[in-house]
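job 3f2a | input accepted
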Amino acid sequence: MNEWLVESEASGQTGPVVGLSQWGGPALRSTLWFLAAPALLAVTIIVLDVRLPGWALYGIAGVMGLVLVLRVATDAEWLLALFIIYIPLNKIYVVPLAPGINGTNALMLLMLFAWGMHVSREDRPVFRSLPNSGLVGTYGAITLISVVTASITLGFGHLMTTYLGDIKSWLDQFIVFFVFLNLIRDARMARRIVLYLMLGALVTLALGFQEWLDKRLFDSIDKSRVFGPQLQPNDYGAFLSYMAAPFIALFVTNLGRIRAWFVLFPVLLAIAKILLATFSRGAYVGMALCGVVAGYVRGKLFLVGSGVLALGFLIAMPQLIPESLSARMAQTTTDVGATEQLDDSSQTRLILWEAAIDMTMENPVFGKGFKTFPELKGQYTKIQVHESDNHNMYLYVASQMGVPAVVTLLLIFWRMYSQGVQLYRRSEDPFARAIGMGAAAMVACIALANMFGSRMVDISVTAYFWIYLAALSHMTAQLAESNQEEELP
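job 3f2a | predicted structure (489 res):
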């Protein structure tokens, strides 16, 4: 453990931390060089509008696949980084390889193969005992019981023919978490994984910016909404808002550095700009909460001071509030005669929420079963509603998977928040502290965003949350180990 004892840049004291020179270096550089190849290809296709023939694209993919297969036997970092960059883009770059096999499935199969190779080579248990593994496993097991419940409610044949793909998609989030948890070697690699997540967020931000350039002059909100690579504005807004958390945290923990203002502040402004262009009200509030929680973790005095300063700016210069924000929030209510009512979208959500609550009350332990809400909602709604999503993740889970599943999900949120706060307060490594603050801010944003939509269903939206949690688990384990060593005589 001597190599982990370095001088902290944050406090100038010596402590059991992993310094920048330890977690970066050759491993980071080699991965970035590997990612440069598909990045250059993407830039050529998107920016220069160069259309490569199919045989060339599949040839490049084949070469990269061969390189990865040879590499993963000893080191899976390139593969994990490539998955991180690709997964938010999997809807616009499907990459069909064979019937039932696309780019996402191929990368996940390769990660499972790498997991098995590492277990065999290192002669270790398949599932490593790390923080959060038991809780996430419990959540997965409880929710999968709903498949059995649904087969009773809807019939096994109907469930398999209609929702087999949805069942697989639901399993993806747990596969991603446990693959990353078991393929991340240590806390140093966990830091690099967070860096790749931030890089992937920048890629999705760039694509959203390009779409905004094409739509910014349209004459209505519906026409000008940015859909992003997730192809759905609310999903893209949720993704941007929670992935703003590590950037906010890195900025807040480095306010005294000029580089933070020249590098991170423009990134945050760009995120805010594209987030506004999604016209997603839940995402607006989510990113605001990200900032509030980051400030709270930094310190109550800091939060109050920055809040008063921001409020003062808005009062003195109300023109700083974007017109698009005011216009979108104004759509929440409409004037009907002398009264003010919720807009149609909000009224529909209330009807669906009531239906989900009634479904939950009928079977609070197991719910009605996986994907039963779209099939049964007509029995519970007061009027006919065409939408099949109840626009609330907690009611989505409770009505179909039971209250215990919701409680377990909330425990995961709380665990991530508390571990993030502890990492920020007890670590002496500046980047680790930022990661901890980012975890607390991210989970607060996700918890709020899921009040207004089911944002933990689509892997292109939710994968980064599970990967961040896996990285945090390793850093939490390393922090606990370091504290134990400090207590030894």
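job 3f2a | Confidence is low (pLDDT under 50) at residues 1-21, 324-331, 333-340.
job 3f2a | closed
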